[in-house]
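Example record

The entry below shows one chain as it appears in the dataset: sequence first, then structure tokens.
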Amino acid sequence: MENEKMYEELNNLRQLEKKVKQSLKNAPEGRLHTGLAKGQYPQYYALDNVSLENKLRGKYIRKPEMELAVKLAQKEYDLAILKEIEKEKAKINSYIRIKEDGIGNVYHKLPYAKRILVSPYILDDEQYIENWKNKNVDNINTYPLIDAYDTEKGDKVRSKSEKIIADKLHLLNIPYKYEAELRLKDDGIIFPDFTILRIKKREEVYLEHFGMMDNPEYCRKAIEKIERYEKNGIALGEKLFVVFESSLKSINIGQVELLLHRICGK
């Protein structure tokens, strides 16, 4: 989990680097030199290459030209920020290399004949996903599937829309279980349409597809199901996500894909 924080920080630095470089595209040539008139009033001078080479003060920037001073000051700041970003990136990359070659890699350094005999204390993503898939594999909804749809992964689901969701999950390499049992803290057992593994955080989240929201009785039960989640600490928009449909508004594949990206940070 510590490495995940490092990767997140590295990504933040890259985003900042991108923003700073975009700012520098509009920066003017030269540098800014400052002085004080009468020892207290700032004065600004634009230094071009000739001024720098000959150690001259440069061209005085008058008040109507202060935008140039602002841009040159921003340029100096941006360049300094880029240097610090490079230092921070180098530190983080060095740290990640050390960690990834440390405890977490001991298992992989063992010969295969020994690895198959060992129960590792630290699991990589592939091992964690495999263990998660095999956990409680038989605890699924036993309600009969009628006119089922076959997914790309090989599951059977109850509707065409659920097939679309399942196939998107499979295409994006997001681990999921269909109608797997979830034991709520205070409210018995529930069967989410999709139980999804957030690999980076190694946590489960749930996706429900409500397909007949213009049916009053169906709508009532959908709301009650959402309330059961909320009652047990599974908050909508945090660990619970929903896709709604009605006879007048069918599922939007593009919006489903955007939702899955947001859920798992793809």
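Notes for this example: The first helix runs from residue 2 to 24. The chain has a mean pLDDT of 87.
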